[in-house]
Amino acid sequence: MMRKTICMESPAGTLYVSEENGKIVRISRIEETLYGDSEILENCRCQLNEYFAGKRKKFDLPLSLEGTEFQKSVWKAMEEIEYGTCISYQKLAEMAGFSKAVRAVGTACGHNPIGIVIPCHRVIRSDGKTGNYAWGTEMKQFLIDLEKEKLR
User: Fold this and answer.
1) What is the tens place of the pLDDT at every residue in 40-61?
2) Domain range for 127
3) 40 & 85 share domain
4) Number of domains comprising the chain
5) Residue range 6-41, pLDDT digits in tens
6) Is 61 part of any domain?
7) Residue 11 domain flag
8) pTM of the entire structure?
9) Which residues are catalytic?
10) Are residues 41 and 75 in the same domain?
11) Residue 136 lies in a domain
12) DSSP symbols for 87-148
């Protein structure tokens, strides 16, 4: 089946959301060719809009993750990080069962194909600084601040 991609405007800027075979496969800020809409893409758009409005704390979308088994276990652990909270890369490594692989866990965070929905922005350095983010550190700080603001 062909991949479908939509473009949506959000408080975080333009997002490109892709699905294949009825599952979300990618959320990106890099311009992609648009191939049409689908029910799952509309559902994702709706849930992202609810997230940005502070009305959604956890996503309920079918996902299809392409990556190594290691990356998938890190991404699965990231889904357990509560809305509005941040944890260290070390804590994430422990949650994923790889306490001695902190750098590799950080690399897996950087390869997360479904940003926001899989909340890699909630993983920060042990010294409290945001650390790197595939979409830029300003975007990471924006998402962290957005969640903290919506918790008040």
Assistant:
1) 999 999 999 999 999 999 999 9
2) 69-151
3) no
4) 2
5) 999 999 999 999 999 999 999 999 888 888 889 999
6) no
7) yes
8) 0.92
9) 120
10) no
11) yes
12) EEHHHHHHHTT-TT-HHHHHHHHHT-SBBTTB-GGGEE-TTS-----TT-HHHHHHHHHHHH
